[in-house]
Amino acid sequence: MRARLLAASLAVLLAGACSATSGKVPERALVPKDDTGTVAENDRPGTADWRVRRTGAEHEIEGFADRVSVLPGENFRLFVSTTTARFSAQAFRMGWYGGKKAREVWHSEETAGVRQPTPKIDPRTRTVTAPWKPSLTVDTAHWPAGAYLIRLTAASGAQRYVPVTVRSKDTEGRVVVLNATTTWQAYNAWGGYSLYKGPSGGDGDRASGVSFDRPYDANGAGKFLTYEQSAIALAERLGVPLAYATDNDLHARAGLLDKARGLLTLGHDEYWSTAMRDHATKARDHGVNIAFLGANAVNRHIRFAGTRLGPDRLVICYKDAATDPVARTNPKESTQDWRLPPHPRPESDLIGIQYVCFPAEGAFTVLRPDFWMFRGTGVRAGTRFPGLVGPEADALNPLGPTPRPIEIVARSPMTCGNRPDVSHASYYTVPSGAGVVATGTMRWVCGLRGAACGHGVTDAARAFVAASTETLVRAMAVGPLGRAHPVHDNLKDVRDSRAG
């Protein structure tokens, strides 16, 4: 029976209609419709040809923008380097678009290509920057807010992406989709250095600061495509009022979430500044729902600094208080894991659970089948979705802080390296009525691709994740989750190595 219900849910999802879950949600009819926003935008014809077909040689074509995000109508500059004589650029807004997932909103004329200078590397921090001259100025007039990929195409046919977010002017009454730009940059090894490794291949010569003044490595948008694009397509298909912003915006704009309905962080949003965390916590305490559709979020504490191209374009993270000079002068801003000294503030205080494992492998295992987010999916206590937990996972923090009341809705046995462990998914509420959902696995968004996600993830898992996420996003758009969905606290009943 469960398999038939999940298969039915998948069939409905693929047809672009409402999932089986939706009919079970009492406030479904109350969900505000964004009839002049995402609905109208996604009714426009999509563009099937938006993917990078061939990246070519390492430096055949690559580029970056001088703005992480812009308001609609603002300009940004593209800095492009190519080994070919000419190149062109196309801008694609990412969404649903009848299943095509993108719409072309702009393209350039063919432009003369130049091979730009080699990277500069700061010997103190190993920060890589590209000292390039601008190639194009892009006017975003008439571009709707959203997540964009600029596809660069060399005369040879080689292609790479440049991600840019057109942020929303207003977030009131909307669910804010947050692009995890600081995490994208932390893992970016373009020029030989990231926050994880240097030319040695290990962490002994890693960078302690990474700059947005350089291209992203590989195809230019790997983290976005893996951990965000599928969730954005689903959210846009629902037609609820959405807004778009980046980690950089959450840091810089104290009022970003004022009067928003929710904040949606996606598969991997690991690097947070003090301001980011303070702004999210304040929003929660004023009734803004938060969903963490991943794992390992808010794990690394960072600082921002400016570069020659503007403010907040340098992400600083020493990962070790012993090497961060600020640890002695301003310990609250030292850049190690949030939970570590000199001023420990475990991320479980915001998320409910926290990062516990890499590499993690396990089956997402339902503990509370009557949890409101799972209604209509046909799951039972103990229903398992193989491969859906990993490669990083969260669990209860046995030493706290753990918000109360909290409901553990999934308890998933997993292997952590070579040892057995457990992952959790959770839901808690605060006095403002806001609810916070955490899936506890980095593969939640990947799971929306079903078998295409790999790792043993099935199409049954796709149906479950899609239906559950649809229910969540619709409910977040209505208002504070706790008003319609009170928590059934079961912390004392969870008995495992993490709960104590």
From TrEMBL:
Signal peptide span: 1-20
Keyword Signal: yes
TM helices/strands, residue ranges: none
Domain (N,N-dimethylformamidase beta subunit-like C-terminal): residue spans on this chain: 89-451
Keywords in alphabetical order: Signal
Name of the molecule in the record: N,N-dimethylformamidase beta subunit-like C-terminal domain-containing protein
Organism: Actinomadura rayongensis
Organism ancestry: Bacteria, Bacillati, Actinomycetota, Actinomycetes, Streptosporangiales
